[in-house]
Amino acid sequence: MSAAKTSRVRNPWSANDEARLSDLYPNTPMPELIKIFSRPHWSIYNKAYSLGIKRSAEYLSSEHACRLRRDNNPGAASRFKKGQASWNKGKSFTAGGRSAETQFKAGTLNGNAALLLQPVGAERITKDGIRQRKIRDDGPPHRRWKSAHMILWEEVNGPVPHGHIVVFCDKNAANIEISNLELITRAENMRRNTIHRYPSELKETIRQLGKLKKAISEASNEKQDD
Is 178 part of any domain? Predict the structure, then answer.
């Protein structure tokens, strides 16, 4: 067996180990348990939890538990007392040096943010080659831009119905002409994309087969209704 496989071999707890842990865990500090069982602390904690073994009240009240106990009230001397005020209460903060000159002013943009800000009507090209136009300055960033071909379609035909999209007839996103735009359902777009990688002849065959299946299904439904 290789060294890599050997390192992954688990070391299961034996019945004797579990019995010994049950005896020792309630009152034995963890460093000693680690030495006795030659296991990491998390393994010992997990095994004790699975066996339902808990620390004793005596152990939890001892220094080994490393707990902050109410009876000892640790840190009381360094806490704020009721009615005590901080040294800077009522004092205004004044930044030093030239910080006042370089502070951002409300309603202004600087640096890269100013360079990225585009006025309404500006256009950009997405990584998918789609031309977009900025239509608003407010609202979520993804709502401020709209595809130019969608704007053109809606100017001529009205709003795009729910569940539909506007696509390019010739697949050329740069050809933004109303005659090159087609309104289709999202389902139809998915069907078209599944055959997009095939040659044009095969794609047409697949489309015709789809139409044939649809016609057969409709004829079958009509026959059942008779």
Answer: yes
